[in-house]
Design goal:
- The chain is α+β, with helices and mostly antiparallel strands.
- It has three domains: about 35-195; about 225-265; about 270-435, Histidine kinase-like ATPase, C-terminal domain (Heat Shock Protein 90, 2-Layer Sandwich), CATH 3.30.565.
- It has helices at about 15-20, 35-60, 65-85, 95-115, 120-125, 135-145, 145-165, 170-220, 225-240, 240-265, 300, 325-345, 375-380, 385-400, 420-435; strands at about 5, 10-15, 295, 310-315, 320, 350-355, 360-365, 400-405, 415-420.
- The protein is built from 15 helices and nine strands.
- It is elongated and about 110 Å long.
- The chain is about 60% helix and about 10% strand.
Length: about 450
Amino acid sequence: MTDTDTDTDTGTVRGAPAARRRGERPAKVLRMSVELPLWRALTGYRILTLLYALFLFALAYRRYDHPLGAAAYMGALTLWMALTWRRTVSAERCTRQFLAADLAFAVGGILLTPLVDSHARIMGGGPTLPSIWTAGAVLGFAIKGGWRWAAVASSFVAVANLVERQVPARDTVHNVVLVWVASVGIGYVVEVARSSERTLARALQIEAATRERERLARDIHDSVLQVLAMVQRRGNEIGGEAADLGRMAGEQEVALRTLVAGGLLPHAGPPGGAATAVPHQAGDAPPGAASGSGPCDVRALLAPFAGRGVTFSEPGAPVELPAAAAAELAAAVSAALDNVRVHAGEGARAWILVEDEPEAVLVTVRDDGPGIAEGRLADAEREGRLGVALSIRGRLRELGGSARWVSVPGQGTEVELTVPKQGASVASEGTRRGKAGA
């Protein structure tokens, strides 16, 4: 992994110090949490319901049998809220001990109501001292521990309400069931959301690891494997001790291909990515490869490919892409031409056509070779030949683009490479940072 990877569990950027050392501004990554808005909503709910409970108490102050006792509880509840309101802004601050104490304040206020209020008001449906603030204590359990915690906490509140009312009146039962169902439902939703969040975080980690493996496999395919193949071929041509060296290089090439394919392809992109490329003698880097992050004329990178057997056609105006995206596109074209040389033979002709469309850059590589037999691409992928899967299709996928093959046996092959201009800007920046931190 690169040092700009994101910790999807905490929402932090592990590569921030390294980015600062390179003089770059660390990427801003938002915390992935479905719970944070719920905690903030709970904090707001507790504050608003406290104000509502104080308002009800002020209206009925003179009707209490013991108004000073009721005022003492309301004062204690207000002080408790003033000291602890920040405890419900996050899961880390909202501890089990706090939740238990908060629930004790709610249940205590309900049980204290018959001691300070008249029996007639209670039987007439008068509110308890904490009123609907009680639900906040139960919701805290639901968000913190899920539906099981919510069920236990709401049961305590239900028993306290029945004891306070002394008889299971309809409105009391209605309120108790409403709190119980709402808290259990919210707790269940929180558990499902938390599980989905963990699954998403794991998927993002796997995707990031897969993309890094793809990048490394492309580098291996475009460098080490090609050198080993060249050594094998030249050794067989020279003979003698060089032939033994070539044989060993061939064995190492097969082993390395198997290793790369076995560690990468199970996690690679959609099925169908395959490889027809076999070792080639072309340079690893595309001719004229650009560096930096500014715009680059794709024509300047593809023009050096023109030569004996290769015809290059370009528009009259510059065809600009971010430098990193243009270099990746040129490398994909190089891999396509290598396939032509290897599979169509040295005498085959190839044509490169560059088209500058409003939303994308389109490069077509066509040859007059024998074409690709049906199923050959899939077979090559299983064999560990990654020229198409990584050097071509993988590069285009990283840029948000696509690669499409049109081939009829006996009539040549056409490879259509499409790079969206808008997506390439973001993708090339990520590629540049990833390579800088590798």
